[in-house]
Amino acid sequence: MVDSTTAERIGLTWLRAELEPVGAFGRRHDETIAPYAPGDEAKALAEIADAVALARTLHFDGVARIRAALRAVPEPGPILARARAGDPLTDVDFYELGRFVDALAALARAWDAARGAAQRRPPTLDAMRAILAPARENGGFYLADAFGAGLPAARTALASAEAEVDARREAIAARVREVTGVDPIGDEFVVLRDVYTGPLPDGARVVRDAPAYRTVAIDVTSSARDAALARLTRAEEEARRALADRIAAEAGAGNDAVRALGALDRALARVAFAQRWGGCVPTLAPNGIAFDQAVFAPLAGALGERGRRYTPISLDLPGVAVLTGANMGGKSAALATAGFLCACVALGVPPPAREAALPLLDAIVWIGGEGPQDRARLLSSYAAEIVRAREALEHASSRTLMLIDEFARTTGPREGRALLIAFVEALRARGALALVSTHFDGIAEAAQVAHVRIAGLREGALGAVSPDDLDAALDAINLAMDYRVVDARDGAATSDALALARLLGFDATVVARARELYEG
Hints:
Strand order of the largest sheet: 9-10-11-7-12-13
Number of domains: 3
CATH architecture of the largest domain: 3-Layer(aba) Sandwich
Distance between the termini: 48 Å
Number of helices: 20
Shape: elongated
Radius of gyration: 38 Å
Helix content: 40-55%
CATH superfamily of the largest domain: P-loop containing nucleotide triphosphate hydrolases
Structural class: alpha/beta
Largest sheet: 6 strands, mixed
């Protein structure tokens, strides 16, 4: 269970968008699969291992081409359902089924080109393709003679009757030209009164009599043609019915193919993610979180777009730990990374890390700051944190991950520190997993939990940067900051706040005075 605020903070909203299937098949398939929870370790691990194996096997560009081919597969479900129900199918329906089997063949070719294994090759429905083959000239559909025993004779009879009608019409038209001097073009034509006003030949009749002209039609009735047309209509209906029955016999295979496409769509989304961000097959451990060289992909992507580097991080969280360290050192990102990796395994996604041991959880909760729903309820930042903490503590357990980002920083420091210590003690007592970032000193020692910190600014790494050049300052901080999470047994909670304020262009005299006060 993850609420909207937590989903946004840990990158789950971003992750779901990244994993969006390309087609309706995949979206329907995804809707049937809930996030993995405790007890689903075997299923989650199988899906993750499959994605990692495919990511190593399939060619990177080939995955994009397979997904493009998958996106192009039309939806056959309603047509197959009508066929199985015994309803008649139209030529348009048969045409759409032809597009479906063609798209499946194109998808299979894309799979082969991407070096996909033969046993995982997408279905091609060769039987349905063979049924439709006589009508598939130039990619269209024509109810060919092969679909009905009575079609050839019925079409021959109609052609003969229409030829007879055409001959009779031409004979009448020849007499009209001879008598009136007007060439009758089409079923109706005009005879101007200043050209001819006399009687018309047999077979030509006036349909409109105006002062300046007459509109004339040539009437050629034929009971033989009507009978031949009725016979052909019956033969075509019988042929379509027979063809629909043959399609109905293959509808089960068609529906199986649709389900296979849905599973493939979901799998390829995870493969594409693993190929872009890397991914491992984790150990799904019931207690604790540990990962090595992990990537918080939403942040890494945003930094990459701006030409800035991202530093993977490692963490070992056996239960509850307090995280301290430099401003802008990545404490919030470290919390988000832990939540993001747990969200990955819950969705069957290879976590982007060199290796990881992660749990399946009942809930992930982010506490810190305020979300849109808090603003809607007119809660202050402090009130929002307290309400979220109260609700989270009621359900805290070893299957809950609590990510607490500078809790109580918006109230008095003495009360805030005391409240945070008590909160951490309560989480430890409930056996919850929790990573708590703070600038308060001595929290870990007072609450008797592990203490880790961001390594912080490298000694002497910050050079002179113009205060007006914010981008250059941010680049300098990025290069100077050591984002590793390290042990902090000495309990010091350094923030490098004054050095960062100077680099970010804050008034130099104010920074100097602050340093005097701090050191004094």
